[in-house]
Amino acid sequence: MRKLASIQVISDITPILGADMIETASVLGWSVVIAKKDKFKVGDKVVYCEIDSILPDRPEFEFLRERKFRVRTIKLKKQVSQGICFPLSVLPKGNYNEGDDVTDVLGVVKYDPQAEVEKRLSDERMLVHKNRIDKFLKRYTWYRSFIKPSRLPFPSFIKKTDEDRIQLFPWICTKHVDTVFEVSEKVDGQSATYFLIKNPVSWQRWFKPYLFGVCSRNFQLLKADNSSYWDIANRLNIKESLSGLMRFIGRKGGCDRIILQGEIIGPKIQGNKYRRTSNEFYAFNLFFDDEQCDNRLLFENMEAMDLKTVPLLNDMKLAPTIKENLELANGKSRLSDTLREGLVLRNYQLGLSFKIVSPEFLLKHEE
After folding, report:
1. Which residues have a Cβ under 8 Å from the Cβ of 35 and sit 6 or more positions away?
2. How far apart, in whole angstroms, are the C-alpha atoms of residue 116 and residue 209?
3. Do 365 and 111 meet the contact criterion of CB atoms below 8 Å apart?
4. How far apart are CA 85 and CA 5, in angstroms?
5. Residue 266 to residue 37: CA distance in whole angstroms
6. pLDDT > 70: what percent of the chain?
């Protein structure tokens, strides 16, 4: 679970050229601009709020009102700043230790535009069904038994598609200086998950051996609709492709479930940064049971299914510092003449996986 607000320690403070009122603090692997008047010192415990945090409407956070209390990447005096540091006095009195998650204590919530879109669409569907006849009939059990929900919580057997950022691992550049990572481009779209699992009801397997599922980032979508998730599932024949893959795997010993995850980009998604005229799907994860395919196997399986992967880049070793790795994440996308969102690095043997989000991308899109 991501800690939007946590207790952290300032590990370093450096001056900013040409700035008399501000300086840069290092917190974990983040660089954060702080005010000299706050008199923070190296070793001080602070409340650190990550980018994508939305702070509560409180007097001490009034300076964020114009940004709707959202913490995002900014640049001050040519210094990129990601996150905000507050003194412990913004919290209720208590004993706080380094690493403590104070997200709920402070009342911080995550900025999640995809979740907001899902909620809005869900609310719109609910309004359609809130008519007088529907309300009247819902009094009866026989009627309610015929009404099936349009969605369920995200399946517990699937990990959500959200990598941690490199800044959360300040030790990684020194500890894994010689580690080789497989690299892919991080695509800024809409996370989608498709799965095929063995039917848990044994007697039903005679006529329906596998169950197919479609998921957004936060929900399993039970009914086919005009959403981008079902549009991709239907146009790209995802169910049939996964079924064919399941049959092929069955000849090699079989598995109980296949999980396919990827990013959808299109005209109505994230401002259409890639200038697409229709929805497109780019896979970045493929699991057989709990075993994840590396980039080579991902590409081979997607090619066999006539599906695309996110751009797969050359393997790389980490640069000596997090700042240098952030600079490496800057660059043009392989999908369009636009800035890429960043990189995803993985070493499957060591179980290491994280993302490096481009500061240039975040500043351009005010994220």
Report:
1. 21, 22
2. 35
3. no
4. 10
5. 46
6. 90
What is the number of helices (H) and of strands (E) in the chain? Answer: 10, 21
Sheet holding 312-317, edge to edge: 312-317, 180-186, 342-347, 352-357
Q: Where are the alpha helices (H) located in 55-183, listed in sequence order?
A: 103-106, 113-129, 132-137, 141-144, 172-175
Cα 219 to Cα 132: distance, rounded to the nearest angstrom:
28
d(CA 274, CA 258): 29
320, 327 Cβ separation under 8 angstroms: no
Tokens at 188, concatenated: 């800024």
Residue type, 184: S
Is the distance from CB of 196 to CB of 246 less than 8 angstroms? yes
Q: In whole angstroms, give the CA distance from residue 179 to residue 173.
A: 9
Tokens 């003449």 correspond to what residue?
337
Domain residue ranges in the chain: 5-110, 113-147, 166-364
Q: What is the pLDDT of residues 45-70, one digit of tens each?
A: 999 999 999 999 999 999 999 999 99
Kindly tell me if the per-residue pLDDT of 173 is higher than 70. yes
249 phi/psi in degrees, rounded to 5: -65, -35
The whole-chain average pLDDT of the chain stands at: 91
Q: What is the largest CA-CA distance in the chain?
A: 75
Record: fold of 166-364: D-amino Acid Aminotransferase; Chain A, domain 1 (3.30.470)
For domain 5-110, give the CATH number. 2.40.50
Query: Do 258 and 246 meet the contact criterion of CB atoms below 8 Å apart?
Result: yes
Q: What's the pTM value of the predicted model, to 2 decimals?
A: 0.88
